[in-house]
Structure formats: structure tokens, C-alpha cells
Amino acid sequence: MSQDVRALEPKALWNKFADLNAVPRPSKKEERVIQFMKDFGAKLGLETIEDEVGNVIIKKPATAGMEDRVTIVMQSHLDMVHQKNNDTVFDFDTQGIEMYVDGDWVKAKGTTLGADNGLGVATIMAILESTDIPHPPIEALFTIDEETGMTGAMGLKGGLLTGDILLNLDTEEDDEIGVGCAGGVDVTARRTYEEEETPEFKTGYQVEVKGLQGGHSGMQIHEGLGNANKIMNRVLFDGFENFGLRISQIEGGSLRNAIPRESKAIIAIDAIHEEAFLAEMNEQANTIKKELKTMEPDLEILVTKTETPEKIMDLGVQEGVTRAIYAALNGVYRMSADIPELVETSNNIARVTIKDGEIEIACLTRSSVESSKLDLANTLRATFELTGCEVEFSGDYPGWTPNMDASILKVVTNVYERLNNEKPHVAACHAGLECGILGQNYPDMEMISFGPNIKGAHSPDERAQISSAQKYWKFVLEILKDIPKK
């Protein structure tokens, strides 16, 4: 099936994408893709550097006649979000992505596709390998661990790059020119609890929430998508209020930057209440599905009999933590007062794990305003601390402040208008891009972000539009021709 992808135009782009997608590249396990990129640079005879944290830099001189142009940095990240459907058998640590063509889209079989940010990486690779594409001096920067901490961008030291302009190829709408983004902080609540022996008169059930779309916890946080952790908590809370439901364990969500699609819980109820409990759960499920039917038509809430668990949570802790999850904000906290339709501050309750006497609730809080980010993080902290949790802030990274006077913005805008006979959408986004972090050590570097249409990023529904990739490729080539002189 990947052969069908290799036959797509532009072949230079899609073939490099197929090469890249054959290499396992989970965040924080990028050793193989780092070596892949170093081998690629060495094979081309280009100066290739791996820095202290694992970022790879490949430098290519200007083509004939372009030597007097400003040096540019072309940047994308090597890692990808690893998400799969529950019924998909796939090992991200050992297997390459299985791709196929569906009309105007490239998709993956039951997993994320890796177009975020693999198409950006492939673009840079194709240009580095080319012998007939005019371009200025290029410093190709391939960062690591963008999806789970941005530690690559954070670890990049000043002085390694000499370019004056950075082209970040990590935007997912082909009519958008990115000039700013949100910062973020990981908020993690933890506590321990005592387990109790499950009374003999209890019986076991599994509650499962699945079929949600999931998606990007920044770019799609305002869309009203269902959050499996919040839905699960609502169901369990109702079961406790009405039937004394007791929780044995919960496993919901996965990565912080992905809206959680699935959650499973093992619970126990009084056997005498089974019939009434099942009727109530069915009614509750139908109510929630009706609320979300427009955005989440495939949502399922399943309650099935299972073995009675040996242990259940301490009752007081269960009451506290379910109330805390209910109270914790998920979704948009504040819209921007300065940029129309831009989410300023949000939170994603990404992962809830309760098992073997330990609780962990993992959130990702984003904002383009640092004070608002801290305000929401402290709101979450206070919520979880009220139920006895210890709360940690980690992985804090800054946003990227727009520079509407940047010369590269004018260049890119003019090129887009010339090619498409319309103005691009110049905007900041609510995702976390690496530009803000890179700008800390390279404060004088002008930055811009753009890319092809990618839908469903961070979910197994991720797909890349073929016609958009063709539009984007032409855009890139024209931008390279128009880079200003020194």
C-alpha cells in the first residue's frame, strides 16, 4: 500500500515521507530516526551535526546564483504521536506506519499517520536531496520530542544556527500562515489510597467509553469533542450517587496532547441492585450520546458483566477524586480578546489512571498568555489538592509572540497571493509550536509557520490531503526563490 503513496505527486515529497514512515519514531524513543537522518545527511555529503540532546542539523550551501541570499533554517520535528484503535494490533516501537490512499487523502491503517510532522520532515529531505530546486543557504533543523515535552527545542543551544529566517513546517491548514502559538504546562495530580476487600454481596462490571473522535488537544479543544475521561467520570459518579457503585480501577486516555478517545473502568455494585443499575446506566448512556450526537456519532458507553474485583478504592478517596474530576475544567477557559476566534487558554484532562492504590490525573494546560496559563494551572491545582492530591507542574514552555512586521511574513504572504489569487489567513494558533522556545536562544531570528492540510492529527483518523500537499509543495518552492538578499 505504501507503493501507492510513493506514486503520488510530487514524488520527491511522498517518497521521502514513505521512507520516514518506515522508521519507528515514537517521542522519547527517537534513536532510530536520529540515526536515519544522520545517515541521510552523510549520504548526501552534507555537513551533519547531532547536538547534545539529539537534534539533527544538516547544512546545504545555496544553489548557483542564490549565494547572496539570507541563510534560512527549515525546521520540523522527527517524533510523532502514537495512537491506535483498540482493535488494531500494532507495535509502534518496531513497525513502520501502514499507509494507503483513499481518494484525495493518505491515511494509516488504524493508527496515527505521522503527517504531523512527517510531511514537514519529508519536505526538507526532498529539498536537501534535490539537484534542480533553487534555494538559498539552508540549515535543516530536525528536532526531537516535540509532542511530549519539546525537549529538543528546549535543549538547542544558541550559536549552532546562523540563519536569519526560520521556516517552521508544522501548520495543518494550507491557507494559514502561522505567526504565533500557545505555550503550555503539564499539570499532574497524584495520590495514594488504601484498597478495601470487596464485600461478598458485590458483583463486578466493566464500564467502557469508546468510539470518540479524539484529536489535537490544542487545535481542536474548542470543537466540543467528547472527552472519554470526563464522560467516564460522569457515568461513575451517577452510579455511585444512585447505587453506591465502587471503583476498582480506571484506565482512560493516553497522551497529554491528544483528546482522550477511550476509557475503561472495573467497578463493583450490590448484586441486589443489578437490574436497576443496568437500567440507569442505559438511560445515562443514551442521555450522553444524545447530547454529543452531532460531534460524536460513534460514541459507545458499554456496561458488561465481569469478574468481581478483589479490591476496591477507599470510599472517602473515591468520593473526593470523582468530585475533583467533575469539578476540573476541561476545554476552553478563555477566548482571546485580541485575536478573533482564537482560544487563549484551555485544559485537556488527558489521562486518568486509578489502580493498585495509586491515582494519577494528567492534564495539559495551554495559553498564549503566560499569566492566564498559570491562573488555570493553579485552578486545577487547587481542585485536586482539595481531595488530597499532590500536584506537580512540569514541562513548562513559552508561547510564540506574533511579529506582524517580520520581513518573511511579507514575502510569504505575497507568494501565497501570487500563486492562489487570494489572501492567506495570517493567524496565531492554540497548538504548541517550537518557535517560541527556539526564539529564546535565537531572539533575532524571524519565524513563520505553514504546511499542508492535515486532519485528525493525534488520532487514528489522521489524514493528509494529496491535493493540498501539491499546493503546499509549489508554495515552498516559490518561497525559496523569494528569500531576500543579505
Automatic annotation (TrEMBL):
Which major enzyme category is it? hydrolase
Return the protein name. Cytosol non-specific dipeptidase
Which transformation does this protein catalyse, written as a reaction?
Hydrolysis of dipeptides, preferentially hydrophobic dipeptides including prolyl amino acids
InterPro entries according to UniProt: Peptidase_M20, Peptidase_M20_dimer, Peptidase_M20C
- Give the keywords, sorted: Cobalt, Hydrolase, Metal-binding, Metalloprotease, Protease, Zinc
Q: What is its EC number?
A: 3.4.13.18
Task: Give the family, as the similarity comment puts it.
Answer: Belongs to the peptidase M20C family.
Drop me one GO molecular function for this one. metallodipeptidase activity
Domain Peptidase M20 dimerisation per the UniProt entry, residue ranges: 208-293
Organism of origin is: Mesoflavibacter zeaxanthinifaciens subsp. sabulilitoris
